[in-house]
Specification:
It is globular and about 40 Å long. The longest helix is centred in the C-terminal third of the chain and has 13 residues. The chain has a single domain, classed as 434 Repressor (Amino-terminal Domain). It is 73% helix and 0% strand. It is an all-alpha fold and 71 residues long.
C-alpha cells in the first residue's frame, strides 16, 4: 500500500460514495476528509473507524505491506 490517504480516497470512489457521506459517517466536516486524503500517515483509531465505515480492513492491507518489505 502506498499512500494511505489516496487509498482511502480510491476505496470511497470505488464504492461510489461521496466525501460528504464519509464526513457524515465520521461526524466531521468535508474539509477534514480532504485532509485525510492528503495524509501519508494516519492515527490508528481513525483508520479503524474508516475501515469499519468502508468495510475494508486498511490495517490488514498495511500489515501485508510490512510483511512484504521484511521478506
Amino acid at each position: 500500500m502506498e499512500h494511505i490517504g489516496r487509498e482511502i480516497q480510491r476505496e470511497l470512489r470505488r464504492q461510489e460514495r461521496t466525501v460528504t457521506w464519509l464526513a457524515r459517517q465520521l461526524h466531521c466536516d468535508r474539509t477534514n476528509v480532504y485532509d485525510i486524503f492528503k495524509r501519508n500517515n494516519i492515527d490508528v483509531q481513525l483508520l479503524i473507524r474508516i475501515s469499519q465505515i468502508l468495510h475494508r480492513n486498511f490495517l490488514r492491507d498495511l500489515s501485508e505491506t510490512i510483511d512484504e518489505s521484511v521478506e
